[in-house]
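Lab meeting tomorrow. Please check the following:
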Amino acid sequence: MSCMRATKAIIHLDNLKHNIQSIQSLVQGGAKMCIAVKANGYGHGAVACARTAVESGADMLAVASVEEGVELRKNGITIPLLLLSLCSPEEVSDLVSFHITPFVFDSEYIQLIAAAAQKAGETAFPVHLAVDSGMGRIGCYPAEAASLAKEIVSTPSLTLGGMATHFAVSDSVDKSDRLYTQVQFSRFTEAIDSVRKAGIDPGICHCANSAATLINPEMHLDMVRPGIIVYGYYADEIDETYLKQAGLPVSLKPVMTLETEVCAVRQFKKGMSVGYGRTWTADRDTEIAVLPIGYGDGLLRRFAEHGFSVAINGRCFPVRGRICMDQCMVEIGRESGVHRWDKAVIFGAKEDGALQTADDIARLTGTISYEITTCLTQRVERVFVR
């Protein structure tokens, strides 16, 4: 018989499916869909989310490490996997043997992959040529694309499966950022054209991340790569309000609810303090509820500095004092009706009693929803429901 901590993440796979279908309704020209399940499915559980994505019609899944790809393969995921980051020489054999498609962008790395593919007996192992159109991270410069494509197709063990780039500011509404995204797109299409002019099929061309998938249909090309929107959160400034004003409403539902429960209710007299550093002192007689969740679970210590609160019985209550590794304390006041073992919801879907989303917390604390969901640690059990 297994036991479960009070602190857990409820993962609504039906909401995930809903989001994927909402995104699919926007995709232009029959473009394929590559869904990002990297970083443990943005904290939601990679395997379960991958399975739901496949059931919902995903053509490809994106991972950030060979290890992530291997996990999916060992759990029955057979559709193409795209590796968004580079791997080390020690990982290349697994990359090939588990049929994970890498990005390449220079001769040394191309030959590293080619040697492993040849050793494995591959005669057409697909790679995607990454183009740096202005992100400045990985990728060849546009002027190098044709020569590198020639190198790929002239290597017996490889084939050019596609070309890709990544946008730096497509989730911004600033005019200069919008222009920069257009410049990046132009650079990328020029690179694609140079490969075609060299007589080489560029394969699946893709560049649209979450934001571009939502608002730039001309950038959908052969495939889109939605990430955070799959999990129910908008892409930074390309939010629900912006999309409605642009006449592009899309319905997204949070997939994760983070919850715990009250494990103790403490009587506090005026002048009593709580937590490390005694950063909060009661200015009246009150009550404090103790919750078994802390920064060891991913409820970051700095949240308490920003007026962070949680929901208990449909009401918001402020966190008091510093968040500890394993616990945090909430002021509930007197006669709140809050009792030991009542459910406390940190963020998530409204139907679970949440009064805020991961995006609300992100805006409050000066970050993005991606960080809120991906920082949940392994000890927070993911409970999958439909």
